[in-house]
Amino acid sequence: MDLSKPLPTPTPTSAPFWDGLNDGVVRLQRCNACGGWIFYPRSRCSHCLSDDIEWHEVSGAATLHTFTIARQPTAPQFADEVPQILAVVELEEGVRMTSTLVRVTEKAIEIGMQLEPYFDRVADGVTLLRFAPR
Amino acid sequence: MTRTLRGKAAVAGVGQTTYYKHGQSPDAESKLALEAIVNACVDAGVSPKEIDGFASFSNDRNDGPRLAAALDCKELRYSNMFWGGGGGGTAGAIENAAAAIACGIADCVVVYRSLAQGQFGRFGRGAQVRHVSGDAAHTVPYGLMSAAQMFAMKAMRFMHDYGIRQEALRAIALASYTHAQSNPQAIMHGRPLTEEQYDASRWIVEPFRLFDCCQENDGAAAMVLVPAERAKDFAHRPCYVLGTASGGPNRSAAPVHNAPLYGSSHFTTVAKHLYRMAELTPNDVDVLQSYENFTGGVLMAMVEHGFCAAEEVNDFFVLDNLLAPDGRLPLNTSGGNLAECYMHGLGLTIEAVRQVRGTSCNQIDGAEVSMMIAGPMVTPVSSVIFGAESTL
Q1: Which CATH number fits domain A59-134: 3.40.50.2300, 1.20.1740.10, 3.60.15.10, 2.40.50.840?
Q2: Residue A99 is nearest to which of B134, B135, B142, comparing CB atoms?
């Protein structure tokens, strides 16, 4: 069995996001028609369905919306990461992402805590966006 | 004219197979489905040939046309699948069956679900894939792939917002295990659970310990629905569908955990429609079956169905309140998904019918209004209220 971890495959729609991570920046789409921020990447606004949307560089500053500590791996590839600190973070722009927390002890984790992006180069040309306490 | 399903259809028969631990069924999934359907027909006293409609959920692999041919049904008039994963559609399939009957589309509709995980693989295991795109690209590479992980985070947020203690989840688990001890059909019959065993059990994914997570099982269950005017032609005390509702609030299925209302079981809108159709309130419910994929979902679903306020959860969710026959709201009275069998909620639904018939192994005296809540935290979710003739 191939025990390599699953990796994101950028599409024409999502490539600016993943390319940004490789360059150490967080990019989000924003709608020019209604001003709403959009995640995950798509071709129309999730608020007003306009196709007039544009990529913007953002700070990546976020708060911890919720988390869990997973103590059983659900796939063998992740056995080395247990306990996994899985998280849903809310960016300043209001969109949420799922990720994992790094540079944090279990005891220090608190819903609402301030986070900053951590760019994790996991493979050649592939960077995952994790979060660390700010 | 009010559009409603209230009192238009009734459950005439229920059936199930032997319940097995996952992967241990000696029979193929389609054979299990047929066996449960035939058992439901025997219970009702109708020939399987009379079935003219099939309704299932969760993308059951045994489609209506195939079953109708296997059962030699005289004709097929209705073949229906309720979209959505998990057990969110258990009551939704009943809704579709009752709707078909109410509208004259079909006269004898069977709702069913069959699972043989040895044949087809388990739910709780992450998919073994190397490359992912679309919304999954933002979850799977981070190791977020199981229902337990996703739903733990919803429960965690809800518990944080309202200061809910682990003991509330424990009470839900203990209620199921306690009731299973009177049910010889239950997988966990003869295996009682104590507070100490719960507290000492391993964490799976916080706030869920081992006993907060449902079993995975092999088996099948089925239920035959008929028009209300025929309800008295069958062997058992009639059990009427008083109300159903399904779906979810605004964008509850928004990908990558972007549902506007996050710490939720997704019943906020559904429960209102349910009570409106049934013309009842939470106070009218005598007994409740609430789908435990994970105990945290039960807790949120019961709050969203108005059985207690979120602020009252720590006081409401104590074992005595949840036990048959005298608890404030007896919960999962045959052992539920945790301790009877995980048949994607259809086992719970059959128990809801038994309570109206007066034949439960943990019978509530004089139960007339019996509710089942399906598959919290997925979208669509669904719930159903059954009632005795006195409730019509």
Answers
A1: 2.40.50.840
A2: B142
